[in-house]
Amino acid sequence: MIDQVRLNFNPQATLALNVILSLIMLGIALDLKVSDFKVAFKTPKALFLGLFGHHILFPAMTFLLILATKPAPSIALGMLLVSACPAGHISNLFAARANGNVALAVSISILSKIFAIFMMPLNVIFWGNQEAGMRALLKDFSLDPVRMMVEVALLLGVPLALGLYIAHRYPAFAKRAYKPMRVFSLLALVGFIVGGLAANWAIFKEYGQFVVGVVALHNACALALGYFMAFAVGLPEADRRAVSFETGIQNSSLGLVLIFTFFGGLGGMAIVTAWWGIWHIIAGMALSTYWMKRPILLSTT
Fold first, then answer.
1. Strand partners for 6
2. Helices 132-141 and 102-128: crossing angle, nearest 10°?
3. CA distance 297 to 301
4. What is the CA radius of gyration of the chain?
């Protein structure tokens, strides 16, 4: 039974993932300037819509998808946790490949991480308690929302603030350190994921069939939600593409950290979250390639 499966990760591995995530966040912040946000704030409707879709509509849609598909409780809770995560680290890359509004994508991505400090615990606890199976798991693990908030703040908020300070105070150093740190941290993350898959391959092989289709559907719904939500309010095509990726590309690595920190590596949650981390790269590359071949006309509205 997948609800009883536990993935093999020791405390040292969890600590390593914490460090990798913090380095990624620090690396992102080293390349940020106040002007990046000023550009996005010139289109506040698009910025608000991206954040609203990411932190309000996507978790609500995920809950409806859970009710419709009725997965095992641990898989459902994993889907919910993923939907509550901030935007993923490569969402901006996909927006750029797709001829999207990169300044908007960057601003949504960064602000989604700040809002995630308090929105993640709220979404997981609120929506998780609306369904009996997930509610039982939350009760079993006695999830503390304040502790989760502190954990997310340490992983996202502190490195972001430090990176912004370094970029402002020591711009020359930040410029030199940005690329090497991004490359190193992303390679370290890929290595960690590959190592984690290898260490738990037997579990993924046995239970992966239960999450592959669910994750593909969940991710497709997220990307579509972002795009058509932006379309519905009349945003330009470049903004629609940016909002789509900022809604559908999640920081699943953060989700894994929280699963091992608060849920003891619960199998269904961990397998869903780990597979999401692989699948959203495949889906993001495919969609951004499709859009890359379809330039945006200046007259598009």
1. 266
2. 90
3. 9
4. 18
Phi then psi for 250, rounded to 5 degrees?
-105, 155
DSSP readout, 8-41? ---HHHHHHHHHHHHHHHHHHHHT--HHHHHHHH
Per residue of the chain (301 residues), give pLDDT as tens. Answer: 676 666 666 666 667 777 887 887 788 778 777 666 676 677 788 899 999 999 999 999 999 999 999 999 999 999 999 999 998 778 888 898 898 988 888 888 888 988 999 999 999 999 999 999 999 999 888 778 888 888 888 888 888 889 888 988 888 998 888 888 878 877 877 777 777 777 777 777 777 788 889 999 999 999 999 999 999 999 999 999 999 999 999 988 888 888 888 888 888 888 898 888 888 988 999 999 999 988 776 544 4
Residue pair 105/90 in contact by the 8 Å Cβ criterion: no
pTM: 0.83
* Residue 278, amino acid: I
Residue (of 103, 139, 126) closest to 239 by Cα position: 103
- Cα–Cα distance, 152 to 169 (Å, whole number): 25
